[in-house]
Amino acid sequence: MIENIKNEITQVEVNWLALNQTQRIYQSIINTISRHSEFHFYSEDLNNTILIIKDNFNRTKSSLIKYYLLNLEIEQAQILHRYSDSNILLMELQKLIKENESVYTDNRYGTVLLNISNNNLLLKQFDSAIEYAENSRKYFKGIYLTQKIVDEILFYSNFYKNELLECEKYIIFNSSFNLNESTEVLFSKFNYYKACLEFKKGNYFKCIDILNAHKEIEKDKEGWNINRRILIILSRIELGEFDSLDLSLSNMTKYLNRLAKTNFLNPRFAIILKICMVIVRENLDINRIEKKKKLILKYLEVMKKEDMKWQIKSPELINFEDWIAAKFVIKSRLN
Fold this sequence. Notes:
mainly alpha; 72% helix; 0% strand
């Protein structure tokens, strides 16, 4: 009996040490991920952390350690665009949180519902994304910024469903909310969404006015400012504003050249700029553009590369390939 007690004490110590290590290395890799936008900077560290935590779980069968393990496996699957895999892992995580008192908190359960919603958006399962987002909302009462993340997913899902009236509900930002540098960028994103909505409706002047009035997004380095500039260019193309287009394209070229030196430039944007230049040089003349169709298709073919493909959850809500195909009848659906 004494031996059994000793074994139990030993196991408790093993469990405690394993959990302590898991929490420490989990937080470390999360901090690393938040500091780097590109996967190759931390892919090996993430994989090694997953292996260590998996070993800790196998030795302890701790539900809490399993919680941390699943979160990292989901992170890895989503970064690698394996959204069907991450969906399976998310369902497992939801079940784990719901059925284990040692793991459950309202915040954790709401977060997993929100993550499932986001994953469904990435899978283009918009109705399911909307359902999970709405269900997650009640777990974030009084947490305004998280509520806006819910609104963001609902906006994207309804936007791609072409439910434009429904989208209007989710782009309201409380002007009395105390803005700091990070929340200011979030605020400007919702103004950008408003501009995308106006573009989709064909209100190009209004789209440009909104984008010119709210430039806080210029501080962002994830492509929002580039897409803001692209949306202005596309709006001016729609309006046939040739004089303004020359200046916009010139400024955009200089901006992309500066970005290229900082490694913050997705080559997709450079290709979009080249195609816009071809269109503008031909003065939007359909017959003249038709003669340049081979060159345009060559550029579009380059955009099939994995690192240049259109991403559904990105600042590029107006899919450039779809826009050019619709405007100039260039059949090139690539995504």
